[in-house]
Design brief:
9 strands; 2 helices; 8-stranded antiparallel barrel; mainly beta
Length: 202
């Protein structure tokens, strides 16, 4: 996503702005940006269930937020992984309202997540002609051991014309469910209490 674009409000947590919202729920908020040093993985796009004609590789970052208002103060933050985006573009004019088939792979500290869905184009002329804004919604179709599935959504920027001053990338929210056998609310609470007690003794 463009470095000039703000991200969604998130809660600071471990590694990926990760918040444990329930015994079996995990929320991660992160940013991706196209990165020549991290090319798209051709094996990922080969597995896409549609014809791919755009492949993007990028790095994954944890943005830093102002805790008072949630604004992103550093979109670069800390690099924590890589991502591959496989896209089917049917109209290179990128008209508003067009839907693009997408297949994504995120290599994160929690493991490898793969998602499939669509990106709906919002505009192709804000703040400059040729810059494409989109919103994406995807289902997790492959998740690390201990997870059972979930969804991924984003606010994204595509810069197909390579306009100066803008970057291709996204701000993502990944919402996943763990296997209920892997997590237990009471055990999580007990573990947190024990950790807090240990810190208090130091």
């Amino acid at each position: 996503m463009s470095r000039k674009l703000g991200g969604a409000v998130g809660m600071l947590g471990v590694l990926l702005l990760s918040a444990q919202v329930g015994a079996n729920e995990v929320v991660m908020q992160f940013r991706t940006q196209e990165d020549p040093a991290t090319p798209a993985d051709p094996a990922v796009c080969a597995a896409a269930p549609f014809e791919v004609n755009v492949k993007l590789g990028g790095s994954v970052y944890v943005p830093e937020h102002n805790p008072k208002d949630g604004k992103v103060v550093d979109g670069g933050g800390r690099r924590v992984g890589s991502a591959t985006a496989c896209v089917q573009v049917t109209d290179s004019a990128f008209p508003a309202g067009q839907q693009l088939n997408v297949y994504m792979r995120y290599n994160l500290p929690e493991g490898r997540f793969t998602a499939r869905g669509t990106c709906t184009l919002v505009s192709n002329d804000v703040p400059a002609a040729g810059l494409v804004l989109a919103g994406c919604a995807m289902r997790l179709v492959d998740v690390p051991k201990g997870f059972v599935g979930g969804s991924v959504s984003s606010t994204s920027v595509f810069n197909p014309r390579k306009l100066p001053g803008y970057a291709t990338g996204s701000y993502y929210t990944l919402y996943a469910y763990r296997d209920g056998r892997q997590r237990d609310a009471s055990k999580v609470t007990e573990a947190h209490a024990a950790e807090a007690a240990a810190k208090a003794k130091k």
